[in-house]
C-alpha cells in the first residue's frame, strides 16, 4: 500500500476522460468511473488471476489498440479504453460463447438461476445465439464435497474463485483444479472432503451454480426472497450479513462486504446457523410447571406466576436473594432492560452475562487502549494469546491471517496446541495448560528474545483471551501488562466467547458494572439515580458466586436469560446442583434446555431475526439488527416481558419500545451518548465504535504473576471451545449439529504409545471435577504431555477446569 | 308512402333474421348448460400439470410461473428428487404446486414462462365453488395421472364437460423465436394435455385451404 497523497492519472474510457487512482486495476477504475466491464474471476478481495478473459477490452496505451484483460492491467496515464467498440464486443461475445459451450442450460433447476452473473452477463454482453450444437461435457450431477457444500462440475466455468479463496483467504487449500484441457475440473483431493470452516463462502463467490449450499438447496428462488441487512450473532466480531427470508422462513444468510469487520466473508456457523429459528422444538407459548409438568398458558398468567414469587422472595429475603444469569445472546436493548430489571425491580447486583469462562468484566469493558479490527491491517506485530481464533473468532482469524500473510505483520501465536494460524505465524509458542503465568514470566525474563523484539515494534496489536479453561482470567491480564510495558504503541483486543458479551457488559450485565462502562460504586449509582432511582451500590456475585449461593441457599430465586449453565459453565456439575437446589427459577429462552428444564416458568423469546435492536462487537462497534419475520406463536422481545414482570413486582421500568430503550441508553450510558438508531440506519450503516471514556475507574488492577505449580509428570488437560459444539442454537440446527466432534480426546502419538492406546480406543479421563470416556484421536498438533478435549461436545462429560488429568484405556 | 316503405324494409331485415335464427343455421343462442359451444383453440381455461409419456412429471419446481404471474396466484416449492425413484427428470420436482383460481386472471403467462411445458391451459372454465378454500387448486387436482387423465375437482357436477380437460392450449415458446418467419410450420404449442403432439403445425394458408375459413375466426 502506498502512503501519503494519492496520485491520479488521466485515462479515457469510451471517449470520456476520467481522473483515476494510479496503480488501480482498469476494471475497478472503469467501474468507479461509471463503466461496467463484465467479469467472472475478478473479485475485489482476492488477487487478480485473469482466468475467465471476459473483461477483455480494447486498450490503446500509445502503441496502438490491443485487447487486454482489464482485471490484470493497472491504469496508466493517457490510456485510451474502448469498452463498446466492435472489437471489444466481438471478443467479449466470443469469450461468453466459449464459456457457455460447456455450461449446461439447466438454469430452471439451478439455485443460482435468477442471481447468476453468468446469466446476467450472457444477457448483457453475450452474443444472444449459440452456435454450439455438439454434446456438452458430462459429469455426475452434484457431488457433496463437504457436509454443507455441493459441487456440480458441469456448471463450473473454471474462474478460480473458490480455489483462490481457499488458498489465499481461508488457508485451507482443500479444493483445487484437476486434469487438463477440456477435462479440467474443480474437485477435492481423494479422501479429503472440503472440510473448511469457511466453505460456505465459496458458494457465495461462485459466479455460476457450480457450488451450492446444502441447507439452501431448492428452498427458494432468488426472486422470492425478502432481504434485510443485519449482523450475525454467531461471531463476536458481528460480521455483517444479509438475512434472506421466503414466506417468513429464513432460508440463508449472505455476507455483506464491510471494510470494518468481515470483508464479506462468513464462517459456516455464521452462514448456516439459521435452522434453529424454525426448529419444531422452539417455544411458542409461555410454560408454567404444574404438578411437575409444563403447561402452555397465556402471558398474563405466566407473568403473574413468575413475578409474584420473585417479588415475594425480594420482600422476604431482600434483593441479595435473587440473581440473574445470561443476556449475552440478545440485543443491547434487551440487555439494558435486563440490567435495569435486576437493579430496579429485583434490587440486586447479582447479575452476570458471563459463564465462568471469561476475562474479568473490567478488562473486557474497561480496556481504554482497545484496538479496532481495522488496526490489524496496519500492525507491525500481532500477538494472539488466547483461544484458537479459527475455532472461536472466525472473522478475526481471517483478518489476522490477511495481516500476517499479505500485509506483512509479524504474527506471534501462543496457545497450548496447534492453531489455524500457525502456518502464517512468525513465532508459535506452546505451553502446558495452566502454566500460562510461567510463559509470561519466561518472556519477561527474556527467554524468547525474538518474540520480545517483535513486541517492541512501533505498532503492536494484541488479541488476548482465555486459551484453555485451565487458564484463569488473570493470565490474560498478565499478558496485557507485558504487552503494555513494551516500547511501542500497543492496543489490546480482549477476546471473549458469546456474541454480544461486549454489548451486555456495556449495559451493565456484570456484578460490578453499570450501563456505559461505569463501575458499581457510590458515584456510578449516583449518576444513574435520576433515571433508575435507588439501586444497590455494592458489587454482587458473578456466575460462579451465584451458583454457590444457590447451593448454600443464600440465593433463592434465579432468572436465566438465554443461558445454559448446565452445558456451558466450565463445571457443569456445579451448575446442575445449583439449579436443582434453587427455590424459584424463571427462564427466558428459545428452547427447553438442560438448564431451563429446572425453571418453574419459561417465557418464549425471540431470535435476532424477529426483533430490532443494536449489538456491540469485540472492538466496541455498535451495529443495528433488523427484523424480517414475526416470531412463532406468542413470542415477545425480552424487554417487553421484563417490563411486565417489573410491573407486576411493583417496580415499573417504564420501557415502551426497543427504540425508546435505545434512546434511554444514549442518555444514561456515557459511552453510548449520541448512538441512535437513525445514525446506525443512515450515516453509519457499518456501525460506529463507541468511544471509551478516559475514566480510569475501570482500569484493571495488575495482578502479581503466580503459577499454579509446574507438574513434571502426568498429563495436562486442555479444554477449549470448537466452532461446532453442543450449544443450544447449534443443537437445533441439523446441518451444523452433525459437524460437532463428539466425545473425543486428541492425544499426541507419543502419549498414545505411552498409554498403549490405538486410534479409536476409548480413554477414561479423570479429573477432580469429573470423569468420562472419550474416543482417542491421535493428533500431531497436540504437544506431548497435553491432552485436548473439545468443550461441550454432544455426548461428552465435562471435566472441569483443573489441568491435572489421569488417562487410561477404558475397558471395552 | 315513402315512410312506410322504409319502415317495412327495415322490419324485413328483422323478420328474416328471426326466421333464420329459429329455423335456419344462424342460431346464436346455445342452450347452455345443456349444450356447449365449441371453444376457440387457444381459449384460456383451467390449468393442468402434464407428464411425459413415461409417466414422469414435467414440473421441475423452478417457480418461473410463480415469478411471472401478474396476479401472484401461484405458489410453488421445489424438493430434491429421490435419485432412485425420481418424480421428474433432473434434480428437482415441484413438491408444492398451488394456484388460487380466485386470483388467477387466465393470462397464460405461466404457460409461456414454463421451460418444460409442464403447465398448460385447458378449455374448461366451469369451476365455481362455494368455498374460498376449494378455489385453491393443489398439485393433486392439477396434475394428470400417469395415463394422461386429468382429475376434476367436482366430477359429479353436471355442468362440467370432462373432455374439455383434455384439450390443452400450451402455446409454449410463443414469443421465443421472436416471431421469425423461419419458424413457420414448426409446432409451437400443444393441442392436447399431456405429452405433446409435436407434428408441425400447418401454416395459416394450409389451414385456410383445408377448412375454408380461419381457425381462430370464431370467438
Task: Produce the secondary structure layout.
The complex is a heterodimer of chains A (812) and B (219).
Chain A: E1 8-13, E2 16-21, H1 26-32, E3 56-60, E4 65-69, E5 80-82, H2 86-101, H3 117-125, E6 143-144, E7 149-151, H4 161-169, E8 175-178, E9 185-188, H5 200-205, E10 211-213, E11 226-231, E12 240-246, E13 249-255, H6 268-272, E14 287-290, E15 293-296, H7 299-317, E16 322-326, H8 332-346, E17 351-352, H9 361-366, E18 381-385, H10 389-392, H11 394-405, E19 410-414, E20 427-429, H12 436-444, H13 449-455, E21 459-464, H14 473-484, E22 489-494, H15 501-506, E23 513-514, E24 518-519, H16 522-532, H17 543-552, E25 557-561, H18 565-568, H19 572-581, E26 584-589, E27 601-604, E28 613-616, E29 621-625, H20 638-649, H21 658-668, H22 677-681, E30 688-689, E31 715-720, H23 728-731, H24 734-737, E32 744-747, H25 749-755, E33 762-766, E34 771-778, E35 786-790, E36 804-809
Parallel strand pairs in A: 1-5, 16-17, 16-25, 18-19, 18-21, 19-20, 21-22, 25-26, 26-27, 31-35, 32-34
Antiparallel strand pairs in A: 1-2, 3-4, 3-5, 6-7, 7-10, 8-9, 11-12, 12-13, 14-15, 14-27, 23-24, 28-29, 29-30, 31-36, 32-35, 33-34, 33-36
Chain B: H1 2-23, E1 47-49, H2 64-68, E2 74-80, E3 92-100, H3 109-113, E4 119-122, E5 136-137, H4 139-142, E6 167-170, E7 190-192, H5 204-211
Antiparallel strand pairs in B: 1-4, 2-3, 3-5, 4-6, 6-7
Amino acid at each position: 500500500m502506498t502512503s501519503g497523497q494519492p496520485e491520479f492519472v488521466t485515462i479515457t474510457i469510451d471517449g470520456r476522460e476520467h481522473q483515476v487512482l494510479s496503480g488501480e486495476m482498469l476494471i475497478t477504475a472503469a467501474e468507479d468511473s461509471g463503466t461496467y466491464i463484465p467479469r467472472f474471476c475478478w473479485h475485489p478481495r482476492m488477487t487478480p488471476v485473469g482466468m475467465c478473459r471476459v473483461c477483455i477490452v480494447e486498450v490503446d496505451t500509445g502503441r496502438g489498440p490491443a485487447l487486454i484483460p482489464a482485471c490484470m492491467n493497472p491504469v496508466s496515464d493517457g490510456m485510451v479504453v474502448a469498452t463498446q467498440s466492435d472489437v471489444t464486443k466481438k471478443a467479449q461475445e466470443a469469450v461468453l460463447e466459449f464459456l457457455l459451450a460447456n455450461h449446461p442450460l439447466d438454469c430452471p433447476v439451478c439455485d443460482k438461476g435468477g442471481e447468476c452473473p453468468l446469466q446476467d452477463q450472457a444477457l448483457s454482453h453475450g452474443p444472444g445465439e449459440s452456435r454450439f450444437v455438439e454434446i456438452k461435457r458430462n459429469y455426475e450431477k452434484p457431488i457433496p464435497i463437504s457436509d454443507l457444500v455441493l459441487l456440480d462440475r458441469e456448471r463450473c466455468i473454471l474462474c478460480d474463485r473458490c480455489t483462490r479463496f481457499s488458498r489465499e483467504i481461508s488457508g485451507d487449500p482443500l479444493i483445487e483444479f484437476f486434469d487438463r484441457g477440456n477435462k479440467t475440473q474443480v474437485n477435492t483431493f481423494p479422501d479429503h472432503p472440503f472440510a473448511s470452516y469457511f466453505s460456505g463462502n465459496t458458494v457465495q463467490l461462485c459466479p455460476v451454480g457450480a457450488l451450492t449450499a446444502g441447507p439452501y438447496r431448492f428452498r427458494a428462488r432468488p426472486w422470492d426472497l425478502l432481504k434485510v441487512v443485519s449482523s450475525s450473532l454467531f461471531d463476536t466480531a458481528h460480521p455483517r450479513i444479509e438475512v434472506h427470508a421466503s414466506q417468513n422462513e429464513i432460508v440463508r444468510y449472505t455476507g455483506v462486504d464491510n471494510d470494518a469487520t468481515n470483508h464479506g466473508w462468513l464462517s459456516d456457523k455464521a452462514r448456516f446457523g439459521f435452522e434453529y429459528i424454525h426448529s419444531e422444538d422452539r417455544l411458542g407459548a409461555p410454560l408454567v410447571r404444574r404438578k411437575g409438568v409444563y403447561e402452555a398458558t397465556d402471558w398474563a398468567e405466566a407473568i403473574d406466576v413468575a413475578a409474584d414469587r420473585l417479588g415475594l422472595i425480594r420482600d422476604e429475603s431482600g434483593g441479595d436473594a435473587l440473581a440473574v444469569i445470561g443476556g449475552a445472546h440478545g440485543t443491547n436493548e434487551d440487555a439494558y432492560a435486563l440490567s435495569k430489571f435486576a437493579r430496579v425491580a429485583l434490587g440486586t447486583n447479582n447479575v452476570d452475562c458471563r459463564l465462568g469462562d471469561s476475562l474479568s468484566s473490567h478488562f473486557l469493558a474497561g480496556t481504554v487502549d482497545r484496538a479496532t479490527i481495522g488496526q490489524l491491517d496496519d500492525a507491525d506485530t500481532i500477538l494472539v494469546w488466547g483461544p484458537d481464533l479459527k475455532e472461536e473468532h472466525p472473522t478475526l482469524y481471517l483478518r489476522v491471517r490477511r495481516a500476517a500473510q499479505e500485509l506483512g505483520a509479524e504474527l506471534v501465536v501462543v496457545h497450548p496446541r496447534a492453531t489455524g494460524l500457525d502456518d502464517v505465524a512468525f513465532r508459535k509458542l506452546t505451553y502446558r495448560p495452566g502454566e500460562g503465568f510461567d510463559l509470561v514470566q519466561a518472556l519477561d525474563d527474556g527467554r524468547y528474545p525474538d518474540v520480545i523484539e517483535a513486541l517492541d515494534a512501533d505498532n503492536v496489536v494484541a488479541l488476548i483471551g482465555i486459551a484453555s479453561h485451565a487458564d484463569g482470567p488473570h493470565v490474560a491480564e498478565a499478558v496485557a501488562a507485558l504487552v503494555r510495558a513494551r516500547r511501542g504503541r500497543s492496543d489490546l483486543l480482549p477476546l471473549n466467547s458469546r456474541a454480544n458479551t461486549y454489548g451486555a457488559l456495556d449495559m451493565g450485565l456484570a456484578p460490578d458494572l453499570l450501563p456505559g462502562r461505569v463501575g458499581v460504586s457510590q458515584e456510578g449509582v449516583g449518576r444513574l439515580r435520576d433515571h433508575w432511582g435507588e439501586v444497590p451500590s455494592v458489587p454482587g456475585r458473578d456466575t460462579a458466586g451465584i451458583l454457590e449461593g444457590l447451593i448454600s441457599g443464600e440465593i433463592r430465586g434465579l432468572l436465566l436469560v438465554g443461558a445454559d449453565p448446565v452445558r456451558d459453565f466450565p463445571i457443569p456439575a456445579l451448575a446442575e446442583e445449583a439449579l436443582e437446589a434453587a427455590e424459584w427459577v424463571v427462564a427466558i429462552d428459545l428452547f427447553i434446555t438442560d438448564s431451563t428444564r429446572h425453571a418453574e416458568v419459561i417465557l418464549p423469546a425471540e431470535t435476532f431475526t424477529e426483533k430490532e435492536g443494536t449489538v456491540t462487537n469485540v472492538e466496541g462497534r455498535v451495529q443495528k439488527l433488523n427484523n424480517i419475520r414475526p416470531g412463532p406463536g406468542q413470542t415477545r422481545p425480552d424487554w417487553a416481558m421484563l417490563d411486565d414482570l417489573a410491573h407486576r413486582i411493583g417496580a415499573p421500568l417504564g420501557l415502551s419500545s426497543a427504540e425508546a430503550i435505545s434512546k434511554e441508553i444514549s442518555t444514561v450510558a456515557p459511552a453510548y451518548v449520541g448512538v441512535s438508531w437513525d445514525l446506525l440506519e443512515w450515516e453509519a450503516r457499518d456501525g460506529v465504535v463507541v468511544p471509551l471514556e478516559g475514566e480510569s475507574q475501570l482500569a484493571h488492577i495488575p495482578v502479581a504473576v503466580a503459577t499454579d505449580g509446574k507438574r513434571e509428570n502426568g498429563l495436562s488437560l486442555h479444554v477449549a471451545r470448537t466452532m461446532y459444539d453442543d450449544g443450544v442454537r447449534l443443537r437445533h440446527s441439523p446441518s451444523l449439529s452433525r459437524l460437532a466432534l463428539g466425545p473425543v480426546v486428541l492425544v499426541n502419538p507419543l502419549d498414545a504409545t505411552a498409554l498403549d492406546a490405538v486410534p479409536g480406543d476409548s480413554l477414561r479421563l479423570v479429573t477432580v471435577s469429573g470423569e468420562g470416556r472419550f474416543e482417542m484421536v491421535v493428533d500431531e498438533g497436540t504437544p506431548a504431555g497435553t491432552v485436548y478435549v473439545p468443550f461441550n461436545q454432544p455426548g461428552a462429560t465435562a471435566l472441569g477446569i483443573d489441568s491435572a488429568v489421569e488417562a487410561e484405556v477404558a475397558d471395552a | 308512402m315513402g315512410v312506410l316503405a322504409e319502415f317495412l324494409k327495415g322490419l324485413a331485415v328483422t323478420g328474416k333474421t328471426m326466421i333464420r335464427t329459429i329455423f335456419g343455421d344462424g342460431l346464436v343462442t346455445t342452450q347452455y348448460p345443456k349444450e356447449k359451444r365449441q371453444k376457440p383453440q387457444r381459449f384460456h381455461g383451467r390449468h393442468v400439470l402434464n407428464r411425459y409419456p413415461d409417466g414422469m412429471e414435467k414440473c421441475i419446481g423452478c417457480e418461473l410461473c410463480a415469478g411471472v404471474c401478474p396476479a401472484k396466484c401461484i405458489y410453488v416449492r421445489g424438493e430434491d428428487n429421490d435419485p432412485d425413484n425420481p418424480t421428474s427428470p433432473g434434480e428437482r420436482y415441484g413438491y408444492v404446486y398451488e394456484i388460487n383460481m380466485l386470483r388467477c386472471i387466465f393470462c397464460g403467462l405461466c404457460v409461456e414462462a414454463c421451460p418444460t411445458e409442464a403447465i398448460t391451459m385447458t378449455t374448461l372454465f366451469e369451476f365455481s365453488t362455494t368455498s374460498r378454500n376449494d378455489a385453491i387448486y393443489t398439485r393433486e387436482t392439477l396434475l394428470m395421472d400417469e395415463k394422461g387423465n386429468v382429475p376434476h375437482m367436482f366430477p359429479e357436477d353436471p355442468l362440467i364437460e370432462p373432455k374439455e380437460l383434455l384439450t390443452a392450449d400450451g402455446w409454449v415458446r410463443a414469443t421465443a423465436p421472436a416471431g421469425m418467419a423461419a419458424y413457420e410450420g414448426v409446432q409451437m404449442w400443444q393441442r392436447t394435455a399431456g405429452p405433446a403432439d409435436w407434428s408441425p403445425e400447418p401454416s395459416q394458408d394450409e389451414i385456410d385451404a383445408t377448412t375454408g375459413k380461419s381457425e381462430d375466426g370464431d370467438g
